[in-house]
Design goal:
Helix content: 55-70%
Largest sheet: none
CATH superfamily of the largest domain: MFS general substrate transporter like domains
CATH topology of the largest domain: Growth Hormone, Chain: A
Strand content: under 5%
CATH class of the largest domain: Mainly Alpha
CATH architecture of the largest domain: Up-down Bundle
Distance between the termini: 33 Å
Structural class: mainly alpha
Number of strands: 0
Radius of gyration: 24 Å
Order of helices and strands: HHHHHHHHHHHHHHHHHHHH
Number of helices: 20
Shape: globular
């Protein structure tokens, strides 16, 4: 599945500026050393000003280049985390597909088969709210390894022929419950490994890109595997991927102490301890609102293809367009934009994210619809700038809990969005549902952006964002 206390507590705006010492923003990538200060009185010191004369003005040092994705891979610990993410992601995707096929083979019930997928979203809310405090209460490496082992054990039990369908669904829920704790802990640990600056943002981006790529390749790999082995055999393979992830995290990451969870609260009280901070709450909402509406055309891709009378190959194009756009947008923003530029684009990209869905009002053909979905996906690059703001706004002692809540909310709203889209499509034509999501989503995003702007005006939050 799929993070030493950070060198400087989060939320210190003065530590993020271009003149801050390198240690203030985490470990520097090799070759990205900040220019040394000029020592007064040394060989290169500026001449002292005459009495009463103007003070000498120091020449600005060169602006260091943006680190880029290559610098992230030069951090040894991140390489282990990245490969472990690949293994755990493969385990999640293939186990979902194999379990869905297994449940259908045992019951011949489309409802129970589809419920298997739904159970991958809904328990996130339970795990994210009730178990979020674990991310700060125990050493992060221990949490990551234990979560992977729990998932492996659940999958092993699924492979037992005597396991009834109800138990299979319960085990699926168990995996979904621990998932937000795992992902929140891993994200918080990325800030320890990469620092709180641009390397953290790019590291998060890489993990998201891999997750989006899994939508394109993971189910294809799972389908191919199921042509060779039965569903329980495929589940056995995924158990091995979870174990591989646990081993990589155990051997490849540094043991760090628990952050402490200084509020001393757990469950819903601990959740509120994070959410009562207006700034953090506004940032979380900005993470949650776009995916709530973004999933609508994906959830209704098959009905829309049927509505306009196109083939299953065209359906595949509609399903792929959004994740391809997301991957493209993240890669371009991470490779070519500075941290300051990504910060400035957060609200424009987020607010316009579902506007392309308005094209569905005229029932477009496959090519225009795919283009609209691609553009909508590309606006997902707003998350790079939002990540930088979020890690700076959350106190370090609550970082694991906050990341867990953010992950749980993101997954939960996607499940809600899919369910809501399906319900609306029972009464309204599919193309109207997607276009309506574009209208309602844009209005909600404007409201979320206004709230985020209000917190910036109150707290001077622009100072939290490193400027390149």
């Amino acid at each position: 599945m799929a993070p030493a206390p950070a060198s400087v507590p989060a939320g210190r705006p003065e530590a993020a500026g271009p003149s801050a010492p390198a240690s203030a923003v985490g470990p520097a990538a090799p070759g990205l050393v900040a220019p040394a200060s000029v020592s007064v009185g040394g060989p290169t010191a500026a001449p002292a000003s005459a009495p009463g004369g103007p003070a000498p003005v120091a020449a600005p040092g060169p602006v260091p280049p943006a680190p880029g994705y290559g610098a992230v891979f030069r951090v040894r610990e991140f390489r282990f985390v990245f490969v472990a993410h690949l293994f755990s992601l493969l385990g999640v995707v293939v186990s979902e597909l194999a379990l869905t096929v297994l449940v259908y083979d045992l019951t011949r019930s489309p409802l129970l088969s589809s419920l298997t997928f739904a159970l991958g979203f809904l328990p996130y809310l339970v795990g994210g709210t009730l178990l979020a405090g674990l991310a700060d209460r125990f050493p992060p490496r221990r949490i990551l390894v234990v979560c992977d082992l729990v998932c492996a054990a659940c999958v092993v039990l699924m492979t037992v022929p005597a396991t009834p369908v109800a138990a299979l669904l319960a085990l699926r829920c168990a995996i979904a419950v621990v998932s937000p704790v795992f992902h929140g802990t891993r994200t918080a640990t990325l800030a320890d490994i990469l620092g709180e600056g641009d390397l953290f943002v790019l590291g998060r981006s890489l993990l998201r890109i891999v997750s989006q790529s899994a939508l394109l390749a993971g189910f294809a790999a799972g389908g191919l595997l199921l042509t060779v082995v039965p569903p329980r055999g495929a589940l056995a393979v995924t158990a091995a991927t979870f174990l591989a992830s646990a081993l990589l995290l155990r051997l490849g990451t540094v043991r760090r102490p628990a952050r402490g969870g200084g509020d001393g609260e757990s469950g819903l009280a601990g959740t509120w301890a994070v959410l009562r901070d207006r700034r953090v709450r506004a940032l979380m909402v900005m993470f949650w609102v776009p995916p709530l509406f973004a999933v609508v055309p994906e959830a209704l891709a098959a009905p829309y293809a049927d509505e306009i009378g196109v083939s299953t190959a065209a359906l595949g194009l509609l399903m792929c367009a959004l994740p391809v756009g997301t991957i493209t947008g993240e890669l371009l923003a991470g490779s070519f934009l500075s941290a300051a530029a990504r910060s400035r684009l957060v609200l424009p990209l987020a607010v316009t994210g579902v506007l392309p869905y308005l094209l569905y009002a005229v029932r477009p053909g496959v090519a225009p619809a795919a283009a609209a979905l691609f553009l909508a996906g590309a606006t997902g690059a707003y998350t790079l700038g939002l990540d930088a703001r979020f890690v700076a706004a959350v106190p370090e002692e609550r970082r694991g809990r906050a990341m867990t809540l953010m992950t749980a909310g993101t997954m939960t709203v996607q499940g809600v969005g899919m369910a809501g889209a399906g319900l609306a499509a029972e009464f309204v034509p599919v193309h109207a549902v997607v276009a309506g999501a574009g209208v309602v989503g844009t209005l909600c995003l404007l409201a979320a952006a206004a709230e985020l702007r209000a917190t910036e005006g109150r707290d001077g939050a622009d100072r939290h964002v490193p400027h390149g």
